[in-house]
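User: I'm writing a short report section on ligand binding and want a predicted complex to refer to. Could you take this sequence and magnesium ion and write out the structure as tokens? A short remark afterwards would be nice.
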Amino acid sequence: MMNKLSIKVGLLFFIFIVLVELLLFFILYTNLANNQVDEVMDNLLARGNTHRDVLEDHYNKSTMEHVGIMESASDFVVVITDTNGNVIVNSNPVEPEIKQVIQSAVQQPISSDGEIIEEKWKTKKYIASDSLIKVDGEIKGHVLMFAETNKVKNMLLQLGNQFKIIGILTIILTIITILILSKFITSPLIKIKEATEQIYKGNKQIKLNLKRNDELGSLAKTITRISHDLDQLKTERSEFLTNISHELRTPLTYIKGYADIINRPNIKIEDTKNYSSIIKDEAEQLSILIKNLFDLAKVDQNKFAINQEWTPLCEVIQSVINRLRPAFNDKNLTIEEHCPKSLVAFIDPPRIQQVLINILDNAKKHSFEGGKITLNVSDTSNEIEILITDEGEGIPEEEIPYLFNRLYRIDKSRSRLSGGSGIGLTIAKEIVESHGGSIKIVSELGKGTSVKVNLPRGEKYV
Ligand SMILES: Nc1ncnc2c1ncn2[C@@H]1O[C@H](COP(=O)(O)OP(=O)(O)OP(=O)(O)O)[C@@H](O)[C@H]1O
Ligand SMILES: [Mg+2]
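Assistant: Sure. The structure tokens for the complex follow:
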């Protein structure tokens, strides 16, 4: 429960609000209390001084009584005493607390402007001021003014109550915030968490549509995409394994079959030669396949390092063509090559050779007897383009998007005869892309195929 995100965020919010409230309360409370107390004291002293002024002008009993009557109607208490503290006139009954103040007042000398003589409003019942009555330079007595501290205390109590109400409101607000948070933040997070658990358990179809445009929405979309990719990856992997075992099994069946035949008694010497050459071909095919699979594994582990160097591209192309020429001659294929001789490219030569061999090998396999293959290199300021075109059987349009998938072949049975296992283009694509380039196939069924390889030009060669 305490681990719930909404509770954590809510509590944080709550603590923050309470802290702010406490701070505000403290500042307001002390300020208000001080102001209020100061005001009362100033008032008290001013009133006492006024009475004193009147009494200094008319120092007689009736004026004193008049002052007493005036204050009996106010919130204050006035007590007029002689110099010894004997009460002459009082507006309200003289309580023991008042008596105490009077006693200490007559013992302490005070200035002629009057003074606050009791200011402990928190602990005492009254605060008090004292003004000296002087007639012709002689001290005649004291005008003592008292104000009950209850009023100030009540006012501050009210303030405290208001802050309590605000506190309760804060708690309610926090609960609402927690509810809102849990709806808008936590519940989508819980959904995401459940979805990822589903993915972990191997559930294929994750649908996480939060209908939100914020970060959580895009997180949900990413998770959905990852789950689909993962699913696709799993399917691809199992297809891949099935294909591989098939690819390995077929040549092995041939090898085993022909080896059995050779071992039969009475086998003719020509047949032995024939069959052993088939065994050799199949074994070669197998070793090529295994080498390709190793390359693929490297691609998958991101260990497909390329070592680029400035290389005369046309020489690389020429050596590939020379290598493939016998195979081309077998099918009476002509190859036309156009390459700007001075062209220098920033490439990994053996890897690019592999790309060209894979593409030209495809062109050869899918060309008709006596056909023509062209290889054109063009060079712009920031790109090198290698275009290899054949006039062979072409590729159905709907197959083109899948050609670069590993082990993908169009006509499985026929390709098998011509030795393909559907890895050539996958490897070519990986190599070209790790050079920062791209590879594209354009084809028309019955007319021929063009493979376009674009490589970045690299820094200017010096
Ligand atoms: N020039 C082309 N003309 C017609 N079809 C082609 C051409 N190039 C590729 N293809 C088709 O694309 C498929 C995939 O090609 P890819 O080179 O990846 O595999 P492969 O040639 O069958 O086997 P591998 O190259 O691994 O020996 C081929 O099986 C073939 O059907
Ligand atoms: Mg191929």
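A remark for your report: The chain has ten helices and twelve strands. Residues 358, 361-362, 420, 424 surround magnesium ion (ligand 2) (CB under 6 Å).
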